[in-house]
Specification:
Blueprint (H helix, E strand, L loop, with lengths): L25 H30 L5 E6 L2 E5 L2 E6 L2 E5 L2 H14 L3 H27 L5 H23 L6 H12 L12 H17 L4
Length: 213
């Protein structure tokens, strides 16, 4: 879906997210889509800021230590690599290593030791995850919900514009001009090739109805 929209103008109207009525005029549909795009831009910025703050506290569990080593380099001095900690970044990786350790174990003592080690790692992960979830910024869930709602409205109004039935030759001109504006293509009015062909067929039919050959 669209996440980096930059509409031509900012506005903060109240959006009616209901499906557009069939009698809605083209100018009204364009205004309502622009409003939805403005909402996407607003909530995307809020969601990005809150999510960035939240992700700084992502859980990580120390899995062990990478021992110091020496890297031999042709024609250059050896590079001494100091010992460093390594971390698990997901619960799934801890569980996978636990299964692998049990597969490699050849005695009951080895299996018991693996169970004890990985139970401690999982307990550490779960404690960090609980603290992480508790620290979720209060407005993040709301921002994600509003961003999703605005994206849905954007799609509804864009689809309504694509399927609009111009009522006059003037509206045909306005409609095709809107679809063909270079600065909008790929920005926030993004019909695919099939949609554009549909618009051309509709325009041709309207022109025929008005006696334009």
């Amino acid at each position: 879906m669209r996440t980096n929209a930059t509409p031509a103008q900012k506005q903060a109207p109240v959006i009616n997210f209901a499906c557009p009525a069939s009698q809605s005029g083209l100018t009204d549909l364009i205004a309502r889509m622009n409003a939805a795009v403005a909402e996407v831009e607003k909530w995307a910025l809020i969601e990005e800021r809150l999510d960035g703050q939240f992700r700084k506290a992502t859980p990580k569990v120390k899995g062990g230590v990478v021992p110091a080593s020496t890297l031999m380099q042709d024609g250059k001095p050896d590079l001494e690599m100091p010992a460093s900690d390594w971390f698990y970044r997901s619960r799934e990786n801890i569980e996978k290593d636990h299964r692998d350790a049990l597969t490699r174990a050849t005695t009951e003592d080895d299996r018991a030791a693996a169970d004890i080690r990985y139970a401690a790692l999982l307990a550490d992960w779960d404690a960090q995850q609980a603290a992480y979830d508790a620290a979720r910024p209060r407005g993040l869930v709301h921002a994600k919900r509003m961003l999703s709602k605005a994206h849905r409205a954007w799609s509804v109004f864009e689809n309504a514009i694509v399927n609009y039935q111009p009522q006059s030759l003037a509206e045909v001109a306005e409609w095709l001009s809107y679809a063909g504006r270079h600065e909008m293509r790929g920005v926030f009015f993004t019909p695919d090739e099939g949609d554009l062909k549909h618009m051309m067929r509709t325009a041709a039919a309207v022109l025929a109805e008005h006696g334009v050959n």
